[in-house]
Structure to design on (461 residues):
């Protein structure tokens, strides 16, 4: 890491390159010291705002010359500390690289700069009949979604970011610019470098452009909700829906504690029981009606009640409000508390068992919390409410989170379905992948021999 004289020289070089788009202001550095997570903030020494891939390359070359760490920064919505500048250095804020470079209606793809947000892209596509379908639940940047391998509510039908990215422009740790993948729908040409960088959390390079797969907007959409006597019954409906190949677009689980919180926060009157929220996409109203009726039948077989499905936009919005308000409703259960949010993913057949273990652990804990799950792909989140100034509560949340991850791994799953490793799950990566982590480290050393790219993330050193 660069010493103070070298940092001063670097700051001068960055100001010469970018002018007032290179900042050492305390407020700017503080803003770039954290994401939306429980981790202790760590501020960079300098923050830069490039506008082009070439400017990113020039910044990275300067950092390489001065042996200074580099931390890519997008919307700051990451949940495992990916944007923390653990060793100081330069935070490269990509939010001003927000140009939509190309949209092809014929090929159903688009190329955007990394700072373009999900909502910005879909607003731009509003009159084209197309959409970028991956929905992580926040207005993340596309570069950030690539970095963390984001997914979310639509993954069950359309896949995660990994399945919806065709190619990337990446600035490597020495400043070299490479382009991976392409616009062809398949290729057998060499290593799949695109998939290597998706989910690499900024440890291998800085993503500056993203070419994404677009999807046609569904002609017809329906939404549904149903309550269940217990979580196990709800999960059996999930399994039955997947096994019968009903092409559900979204399938979200909220446990009884979360539903009680939603009722209080959003002034709703749902039964205080576990609920599944669904969305169905089809070419015709008949398509979505058939999907909804199929799921209604499965739900009835497992004790589901109050199955309601709607098609008008305003009705769908109202029905899904409970799911969309879940995070803030949970926080309102304990005013002043922060959310320690974790996620795991398991094979569908082990989902009920893994959820049951996590809920039993929470019931035996002094902490309170809720469960929300993208259960159609076996992914669920536990949200623990903690006083961030209370070391005992933070330690208990960490214990529960690690225990949940170990249980998921033991059931054939993963310690994180979508949040990534960051700094919070480094030890769990070793448990999950064993000797394969040595291969990951070798790749990291080969691409980033100085260890300047987002140091301290994914690996301990």
């Amino acid at each position: 890491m660069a010493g103070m004289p070298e940092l001063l020289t670097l700051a001068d070089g960055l100001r010469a390159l970018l002018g007032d788009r290179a900042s050492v202001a305390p407020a700017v550095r503080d803003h770039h010291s954290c994401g939306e997570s429980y981790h202790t903030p760590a501020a960079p020494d300098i923050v830069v705002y490039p506008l082009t891939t070439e400017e990113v390359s020039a910044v990275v070359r300067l950092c390489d010359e001065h042996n200074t760490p580099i931390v890519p920064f997008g919307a700051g919505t990451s949940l495992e500390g990916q944007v923390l500048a653990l060793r100081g250095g330069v935070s490269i804020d990509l939010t001003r690289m927000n140009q939509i470079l190309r949209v092809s209606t014929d090929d159903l793809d688009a190329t955007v700069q990394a700072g373009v947000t999900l909502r910005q892209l879909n607003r731009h596509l509003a009159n084209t009949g197309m959409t970028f379908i991956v929905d992580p639940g926040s207005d993340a940047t596309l570069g950030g979604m690539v970095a963390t391998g984001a997914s979310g509510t639509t993954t069950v039908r359309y896949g995660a970011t990994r399945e919806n990215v065709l190619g990337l422009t990446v600035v490597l740790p020495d400043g070299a610019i490479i382009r991976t993948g392409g616009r062809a729908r398949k290729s057998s040409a060499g290593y799949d470098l695109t998939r290597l960088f998706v989910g690499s959390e900024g440890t291998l390079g800085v993503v500056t452009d993203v070419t994404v797969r677009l999807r046609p907007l569904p002609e017809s959409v329906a939404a549904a909700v149903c309550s269940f006597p217990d979580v196990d019954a709800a999960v059996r409906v999930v399994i039955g829906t997947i096994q019968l190949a009903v092409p559900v677009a979204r399938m979200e689980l909220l446990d009884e504690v979360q539903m009680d919180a939603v009722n209080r926060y959003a002034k709703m009157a749902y039964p205080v029981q576990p609920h599944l929220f669904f969305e169905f996409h089809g070419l015709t109203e008949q398509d979505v009606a058939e999907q909804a009726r199929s799921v209604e039948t499965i739900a009835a077989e497992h004790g589901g009640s109050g199955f309601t499905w709607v098609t008008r936009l305003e009705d769908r919005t109202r029905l899904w409000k409970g799911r969309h308000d879940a995070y803030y409703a949970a926080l309102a259960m304990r005013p002043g508390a922060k959310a320690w949010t974790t996620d795991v993913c398991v094979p569908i057949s082990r989902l009920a068992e893994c959820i049951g273990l996590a809920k039993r652990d929470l019931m035996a804990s002094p902490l309170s919390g809720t469960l929300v799950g993208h259960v159609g792909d076996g992914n669920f989140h536990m949200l623990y409410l903690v006083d961030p100034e209370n070391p005992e509560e933070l330690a208990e949340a960490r214990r529960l989170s690690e225990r949940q991850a170990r249980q998921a791994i033991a059931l054939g799953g993963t310690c994180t379905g979508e949040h990534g490793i960051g700094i919070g799950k480094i030890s769990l990566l070793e448990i999950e992948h064993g000797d394969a982590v040595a291969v990951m480290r070798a790749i990291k050393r080969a691409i980033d021999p100085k260890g300047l790219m987002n140091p301290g993330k994914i690996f301990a050193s």
